[in-house]
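Worked problem 6 (solution included).
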Amino acid sequence: MRTQSGLTLFRKSLRETFYQYVDNTKVNGLWMLRRKPNSTNHDELKRFCWSVILFSLLILGVFLSIMLWNKFYSLPTIVSIENHVPVTNVAFPGVTLCSPLAILEYKLDAFMERIINKLNYSSNDIKIALRSLEGFTSRHTINETRYNMVDEILEENNLTVFETMSLLGGSCEDFLQYCYWGSKQFPCYQKNDDLTFTTSISHVGYCCSFNYRPEDQSYIPFSANNFGVNGGLVIVGLDRIMGNQSTGLLMKVHHPLDYVVEAHTLITLNPYHETFVVVYPVELSSSKEVLELSATKRNCRISSDYKRSKRYYRQAGCILNCHHQLVYRTCGCHPFHYPAIYRRKGIRNCSAKDISCFIRNFDYFKSVKCKECLPNCYDVTYSTSTDYTDLMQHNISASVIYSAHNLSQHSFIVRVYLANQVVTSHKKIIIMSVVSLLADLGGVFNLCLGISVISIVEFFYFFTYRLYVNYRSQTAIIYVKEKKQYL
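Solution. The predicted structure is:
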């Protein structure tokens, strides 16, 4: 009985508090719910309709607030186009030349002349077996007999797969003849951090790269002080993949501090053609407010996100490391075409017998997405457009490149240059801060019900303190009535 009596008192107190609240509040529309001494059925119907309207507007305000919160939580940033910056403030891209074949035929012939063959395999069988090493980088059919033969031959000659592929794969000497920066010729190989080519590796095997130092965290990529077709890098080269196998060399344009990955722009250099590669750099940066967000919210990373790692964060390097870990978990070894920096202690180098694992999981390796490898918050990206001309049409030309060198049917010329004197700068900024979120939430509820912060304070005042006072008053009234009945 006491519990029921207490519940009844609470209901009466709550009802009294509600009517006191609607009598005094400035929230739009609530005054229509005030009680009247002699209310009619028409008054009750009107109050019911207003109750439905006010409740519907409250639901609308909550729905709009949830939409604002989701926008704030999932898309807190936006990219704005800032003023253009001079081309001298942006790094000239790295340029990498690769053969579409991981093993060059003429190098394979030279390799056959130097190896020892005490196992009495035929030269043709050995060459076919050695070509199966391309299974690390491209799709092949599985042939365990050939893999065993390769391992036996390499063991007999005290060679590893790494050493063998460096002898059979492409190098700078295979591709380059003359190099120019603008109209000035320079040695293609020199002890210069900027104007030089070095041998590199990629997902297609051994390559040749310009302005490429991904392993050196202290390296500052050089910038170009000119633009246009007469500026930038000019290469006169020779495609040594003879015969019907010649489908043109592959070229990738990328950031100088990025390892070459499949995501980079791919350009084909056709024999006896001049290729014009126009580069459009875009500078990316982030505001201080964006960097204060978590990496998933800002959708980019900086090196300090990895406090335990001393390496400079690059998205391409992250992707390469992610794929390397996947390969190790699947095949248990370190393949030749991955940088040695990602090889951990205790991981063995892949042998020819591991090729079957690569071929079986080829599609799996290519399809895996590394979601943790977000773009860099500060970066320079490079998009390109490409044009070709047939060198057969240049029997007469004012260019010294054509007149100074004898070009064969396997020669090629490629020009890589910046398109404009200025570079577009994109900056990632906060689209909605905490302050703007609160302002928008206030605007939503003010639109629906005319609620402000003081209205919220007023609500809590009535339904905490005033509710307590009314409950005490109802208790006192019951106590007085019971005392009078007793007397």
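Discussion: The CA atoms of residues 318 and 372 lie 8 Å apart.
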